[in-house]
Design a protein that fits this description.
alpha/beta, TIM Barrel
């Protein structure tokens, strides 16, 4: 299985206004990814609204996805929550439902110290018994993993990968990957997110692309990954530049809201983001529709 390598596609989690997961909708969005032969599926990531769903609804989403995937693609499940005890319960639920790995962000109301985060991750890794990917998402969690802390956690049994930020320039990407490689255990997977900042880290040697775009339109991501693997750096960068109109929408409107609109425009689901989050205006949905059409993604 291609855990922690290649394209890990992160779809939305269709649910109704009360937060009840639409199991059929989940199967429709993940089925599209299975058919596209992505390397893994990142269920219940930030785009998958894990933080807004109850334990029961998260379990419903995992069960629906695993039933549709039927082992064809590894499924990694986000299990972030505000207490270690709840994270462990969520991780054990994911394992019981058939997940292949878990993704953990240090979610907290109060600021966390490095020591608290380390103890949290060590406890979860020891209790869940699935490969664990560190989720470094300071924009949301307000906690930033240093390379040293990632390196320390890479030595913990069961912690196998990191999903961290990307980079804008070749030099920034080379420095990012080199810093992490120097700190982390051999074989530890280094992957990045923020789609518009991924091409350079891939060229610099990142193992995985954790992708919001890949959760609905995997093909352009796969095109970039294939070009990098073939050593055709120019082709990879050209595809990244071609996607700039979409990257600009991601930056302005948030990738989260753009892909909710895109799922609706494709007829996959009419699910809206959980309140208090709002979807796009009709005007902005029109902009998304035009960019999707212009890029030949629809």
């Amino acid at each position: 299985m291609a855990l922690f390598t290649g394209l890990s596609a992160f779809p939305i989690t269709p649910a109704d206004a009360e937060g009840r997961v639409d199991a059929e909708g989940v199967q429709k969005v993940v089925g599209r990814l299975v058919e596209a032969r992505v390397d893994s599926i990142g269920l219940l990531g930030s785009t998958g609204t894990y933080a807004y769903l109850t334990r029961e609804e998260r379990r419903r989403a995992v069960e629906a996805a695993v039933e549709r995937v039927q082992g064809a693609v590894p499924v990694m499940v986000g299990i972030g929550a505000t207490t270690t005890a709840e994270v462990i319960r969520l991780g054990q639920d994911a394992k019981a439902a058939g997940a292949d790995a878990v993704l953990l962000a240090p979610v907290s109301y109060l600021p966390l110290s490095d020591a608290e985060v380390a103890a949290h991750f060590e406890a979860v890794a020891g209790a869940v018994a699935l490969p664990l990917c560190i989720y470094n998402n300071p924009t949301v969690t307000r906690f930033t993993f240093s390379p040293e802390l990632i390196g320390r956690l890479s030595q913990v049994e069961g912690i196998a990968a990191v999903k961290t930020h990307g980079a804008d320039t070749a030099q920034e990407a080379q420095d990012l990957i080199a810093d992490l490689r120097s700190e982390c255990a051999p074989g530890f997977s280094i992957g990045c997110s923020a789609d518009w900042r991924l091409t350079e880290p891939l060229i610099a040697g990142a193992d995985a692309w954790y992708s919001v775009l890949g959760g609905i339109f995997p093909k352009p991501c796969q095109t970039i990954i294939a070009a990098v693997k073939a050593g055709d750096v120019a082709a990879a960068r050209a595809e990244n530049v071609r996607l700039k109109p979409l990257w600009d929408l991601f930056a302005e409107l948030t990738s989260f809201r753009v892909v909710y609109a895109a799922n609706s425009l494709l007829g996959l689901t009419d699910a809206q983001p959980p309140r208090p989050l709002l979807g796009l205006s009709a005007q902005d949905r029109g902009r998304v529709e035009r960019v999707i059409a212009d890029l030949g993604l629809a």
